[in-house]
Amino acid sequence: MADNNREIYLSAKGLTKVFGSGSQKTVAVDHVDIELYKGEIVSIVGESGSGKTTLAKMLLGLISVTEGEIYFQGVKRDIRTQKKKQEYWKNIQAIFQDPFSSYNIFSKIDAVLLDCINMRGGRRLPRAKKIEMMAEACSFVNLKWEELTNKYPFELSGGQMQRLMIARIFLLKPKILLADEPTSMIDACSRATILEMLMNLRDETGMTVIFITHDIGLAYYVSDSVFIMEHGKFVESGTADSVILYPSQPYTRRLISDVPKIHEVWDLSTV
Amino acid sequence: MKNTLQQVFRSGKFLVGFVIFMAVLLMVIFYPLIMTAKPLAIISQGTFFPPGIYVSVYDSIGSTQYTLLLPDAAAKRIDSTLTDQARNDMKTWLVADGIPAAQINTTNSSALMGLWEKNYDPKKSFSGMTFAKLSYYQRLDASLKGILSTTGITIAAPDPTSGALTQTGTVAQTDYVNISQVPSVKVLPLGTDNFGRDVLTELVKAAGVSLEIGVVAGLIATSIGLVLGLLAGYIGGLTDDLIMFITNLFTVIPTFVLLILISFSIGQDKRGAVTIAIVIGFTSWVWTARAVRAQVFSLRNRDHVNLSKLSGHSIPRIILTDILPYIASYVVMAFILQISSAILAEASLSILGLGPRTTETPTLGLMMNWAMIYMAELLGKWWAYLPVLITIALITFSMNLMNTGLDQVFNPALRD
Amino acid sequence: MAKVMLEVNELTTKYITRFGEDVYAVDHVSLKVEEGKSLGIAGESGCGKSTLALSLMGYYFAPLHYTSGEIIIDGHNITGMDPDAVRKSILGTEIAYIPQSAMNALNPTQKVISIVEDVIHAHQPDATKKEILELAKERFGILGLPAEVLQKYPVELSGGMKQRTVIAVSVILLPLVLIADEPSSALDVTSQKMVIKMLRDLMERGYIKAMIFITHELPLLYNVTNDIMVMYAGQIVEKGTAKETVFDPLHPYAKGLMGSIIVPERGLRGVKLAAIPGVPPNLKNPPPGCRFAPRCKYAQPECVQRMIYTMKVDGGREYRCIMTEEQIRKAYKNG
Question: What's the CATH number of domain B2-45+194-414, 3.30.530.20, 1.10.10.10, 1.10.3720.10, 3.20.20.140?
């Protein structure tokens, strides 16, 4: 991508989140700086407890920021009122780790897709048009709308539910998608399908995708840039090749060596 | 929804509780339709009549008399006077009188009576015999007079003008009447209470009133608890602090003392059943509010709630569609528990004399209250308090069973 | 010819659902594991690999029922044994089983050494506490666990430590065969590496004579087991050495699986991952022919009509497909 093409979509400076107070303070995210370009796929890699999910929720605007500022398309983000929040969420959406808990078990899944159409201003559209849009979204993720309509979430499999979440993003077409461990609860065999769909979505809509993951192999496969996070800080960042093939930090090196390899020898003696 | 209902009715505990509760409820609804007597009508002169079938003696004399020759009728008559205690006492007297014990057979009534009539002297006193004992034997002797005879009794009525007695009829020992032909018969399965009211009719009405109080109080308490819990749990922040402050106030002040104070200050006149229910409802919502708040806390950060937010839903909508259905089963269970605890609270208040006005309607607690004041348990009049206790126990037990059954359905981890 | 530690012949087991339907979760599975060797079983969730593990132990509690086939451990036929008899005589001594999230099975109110004592006393009631402590210290030490772990309560240990403790305790009686079902999937990568190392050590030191490792993560199998078996919809679709199966898969499903492996290695970024469309069949009514046919790129009309048996290739490889080896390689070459 040429440099003059790179518009900064989302950036943050000194982002910090502190939980608790006094002697019970936990610093989950510690003065993190990040810059994300349009159409880029980025991974934030860390083990559990590294603060990556807290960072994700702050970027999404779901939890408050203790310190630091977030800029969206160059403008400082202001989500103090419910209305401003709703405006912001037209531009940034999420997919979460556990497909089962992402759905309201009391509503039919049609409601999920209809909500997306409404959010995009399609509330007044005729029913036939809405169905057409929903069917298109479903077929993008290899699901048949006729088979899914009027079903409850518990009638679907985990893989189907996660794909439906992707269909939801297809309908919403946000500028930024934050995917928090989208494949960690999916079988290795079905992971490729989910990843392929997300990449296709990026190719079609040009949205920026932020992957939050503990799987460094996944990060290497999908991302343009990688950020390694430990104890609330970014310890290393750069392009995927530079971070993973030529890691400079010991923590990064350890993360890479802890993952099984098949083309290279996996050295178990460094345990 | 249908699936849940099916599961609920398959739960053993729920079914048992439900059956017991429905039995009580149906009794409360249908009994008054069949027995139309007023529950608080005083029907007896005198207190604590024991349970049984009461037959008008006057009417039975006038009814058609049938002769029945039953072999054991005479023996039953004798045995009801000649109790085992009496027989042993007679033997003791006779032995003290000098008759060898071997000759005295307490099981043979006629032989024993024969010995007794031959030897008993009311003035005879043995060494060591107290005056009370002497009187006792005199009374015993009097009651045994004519016990073995088979002659009947004569009925005589006073002549309206002269006052002299003229024989109107006789009653032989073999005369029986058919109860269904006696015009005035009253069945009192639970006897009468201290005022002389039919305990069973009163009990049914009281159960109904207590249930009513329980449901009203339960509704009020659950509604308040639900709303406060939802707001405190979901909105958090200052709202949560404020609501928790109010809740803590109500926790620190013992609810029951509060109830007593409010009840007392309302005054005797204004205390009706519904008023008491409202008072109980407004003081017992604390537990529900806390429990709902805790549940909402754990739901607030779930993925589906976050996705709902990201879809631009408003806060009231999220509370109604994403939080409320998830705690609905919990709230139903809380409601059931509130009903049973409200019934107990009313009973406790009434026992203290702070319940609804005594003149209008009976409640289970009031009946307990009366039984206690009039010392029914000391006098051995079990029908005045035991059925009430059992009814309270059945109602609360059945509700708790239903609650446990529901708990097992909604929380798979508890299933056995 | 090496001794066969575990032999399974045409094992079939079924689940009986609440409505009385039969679901054949394990359908005529045969395998052999020789002394000193380990076998990996791979497949997506629902393919029957966990059920196979339970069946191998004779762990038939409703709704799981044994239907047919044989299980022979070190020449000892344990087919059809009563689950209680299995527990008393086989579990721990001949076969050890580590279920998924086994670390949660540690009694939180017992110290680790106490758990070890329980296990040993169940089979050797005369062992003294001192003897047990010595043995435990030695074994734990060799396996890389510090001796302090013995005096701790499970809640004081990290997830990785707990899992390794469970594995160490399971093999304390030196069983012949170890069956591990997803032993490391709930752990972070560092703990995972430690668990894998421990399993490798157990084999190398001869503490266990054979191992079956079940997981859906193929890179793990490649680094741990000698052979790999791929299961799909209750049947074995491919079997061979680890190297053969990962780098030269024959069955189209195995090829799809191997093509979706993600590792942080040079050259991976440009490769397009193989995504297998569709979902596995419902085992309540399995299709008569090849179970993978609806999702298979190379399916022919004949595939759905008749039952497909495994084809054997020289060198001990097997695969369940109607095409010959040549036909398969040609088809893959053409894309």
Answer: 1.10.3720.10
A143 close to A163: Cβ distance less than 8 angstroms:
yes
What is the spatial distance between Cα A168 and Cα B47, in angstroms, rounded to a whole number?
77
Q: Do B310 and A86 touch (CB under 8 A)?
A: no
Element of type H or E holding C42: strand C37-42
Q: Taking the complete model, does pTM exceed 0.90, yes or no?
A: no
How many Cα atoms occupy the beta-carbon half-sphere of B30 within 13 Å? 6
Task: State the DSSP H helix or E strand holding residue C5, giving kind and residue range, or none if neither.
Answer: strand C4-16
User: Tokens for A41?
Assistant: 């796929």
Contacts of B311 (CB under 8 A, 6+ apart): A89, A115, A116, A119
Q: Is A267 exposed, middle or buried (0-12, 13-18, 19+ CB in 10 A)?
A: exposed
Encoding tokens for residue B395?
A: 């109602």
Each residue's pLDDT tens digit in chain C (335 positions)?
Answer: 678 888 899 988 888 887 888 888 888 899 999 999 999 999 888 888 888 988 888 778 778 888 888 888 888 888 877 777 777 777 778 888 888 878 788 888 989 999 999 888 888 888 888 989 998 998 888 888 888 889 999 888 888 889 999 999 988 888 889 999 998 887 888 888 889 989 988 888 888 899 999 998 889 999 989 999 999 998 999 999 999 999 999 999 998 888 888 888 887 777 777 778 777 888 888 888 888 888 888 888 888 888 788 788 877 888 888 888 888 888 888 87
Closest residue in A to C199 (Cα–Cα)? A268
B304 close to A (CB below 8 A): yes
Q: Please name the chains neighbouring A, where neighbouring means 3+ C-beta pairs under 8 angstroms.
A: B, C
Q: Return the domain boundaries, chain A.
A: 1-79+216-271
Give one DSSP letter per residue of B374-412, joined into a string: TTTTTTT-GGGTHHHHHHHHHHHHHHHHHHHHHHHHH-G
| Contact criterion met (CB < 8 Å) for C193 and A245 | no
Would you mind telling me the total number of residues written for chain A in this entry? 271
Residues 6+ apart with CB under 8 A from A20: A26
Architecture per CATH, A1-79+216-271: 3-Layer(aba) Sandwich (3.40)
Cα–Cα distance for residue pair B255/B266, rounded to 1 Å: 16
Chain A residue with minimum CA distance to B1: A106
Q: Which of B243, B262, B261 is nearest to B251 (CA)?
A: B243
Q: Does B306 touch chain A (CB under 8 A)?
A: yes
Contact A236, A247 (CB under 8 A): yes
The answer to whether the CB atoms of B307 and A96 lie below 8 A apart is: yes
Q: Which of B302, B312, B314 sits opposite A101 (nearest CB)?
A: B302
Bridge partner list, C238: C230, C319
* Nearest partner of C183 among C201, C162, C203, judged by Cα: C162
Other CB atoms within a 10 A radius of the CB of residue C158 amount to 12
Displacement of CA C195 from its chain's centroid (Å)? 15
Helix (H, G, I), strand (E, B) or coil at B100: coil
Interface of C with A in 200-229 (CB under 8 A): 200, 216-220, 222-223
Position B91, amino acid: K
Nearest to C50 by CA among C95, C98, C93, C2: C98
Inter-chain residue contact B325 with A104, CB threshold 8 Å = yes
How many angstroms from the chain centroid is the CA of residue C154?
25
- Decide: B184 and B56 in contact? Cβ < 8 Å: yes
> In this predicted complex, what is the ipTM?
0.90
Domains of chain C: 4-106+174-262+269-334 (3.40.50.300)
Cis peptide upstream of residue B50 (ω within 30 degrees of 0): no
The helix/strand/coil state of A142 is coil
